[in-house]
Amino acid sequence: MRHALALTLAAALLSGCASHKPEDYNGIWINQKAIDTAAKGVSLRQALQDNGPNFEWKVNVAAGQASFDNGFEIAEGQLKPGEKQYQVDFGDNHDEILTLDGDELVQNTSEWAPQQKFEKARTPAPMGARTGTTFEQALYSAYLGGEWKIIEGPGQGGQVHFRDNGSVDGLPNLDRYALCLAGDCADMSGGNDSLWLERNKQGAPWIFKRDGDQLEILRATNSAQPDEKPQLQPGARQWLLERD
After folding, report:
1. In the record, which residues are listed under signal peptide (predicted)?
2. C-alpha–C-alpha distance, residues 121 and 179, integer Å
3. Phi, psi (deg, nearest 5) at residue 147
């Protein structure tokens, strides 16, 4: 009996240590930790900075390609298989090492970025979609999903829905939104969270503040001179929303 139990345990250990197949790397992997942190109702900028810099990896072993998105650029590289790992060559002496740790894809520490872990997306966008699309949709759903009521501002008393595809219902005269994740929009708004609101492809940046189930949307005022890079500061509050 003891001998049989020992064999069973040994088999289980060997199974757990088995190397991953190349196709196990395939698919879209997202920074779920950043999403979970943001979903608590905190500053989006802080949640992304604390858990960045990369938000999504897309790996296609058969094509020998991999790409990542960090919110303002997409880097595309060539996969090179190694022993229990893949090297992604982006050129210009930039490469990243990918390994699998259980069900997580690990981007190993490099001179370009710290170690990060990514989870296989539960509802991935099509592989042909732009890299970063799956992360954005998951983030939008977790961070702004649900029913919001307009407590103050135009349309007071109405319901607002932010869809994961970037459409918005219920904010008067607006039909699209985009959260600022990184890049120029983040640089222009300093330490403030910002988003883009538009209707019929005509829009402007706004500053927002998230505190739990309350969301303030404020006008963005530019403190820079006309010949300088815009520096956006929070202005008058336009809306106060509360999530049911």
Report:
1. 1-20
2. 20
3. -100, 125
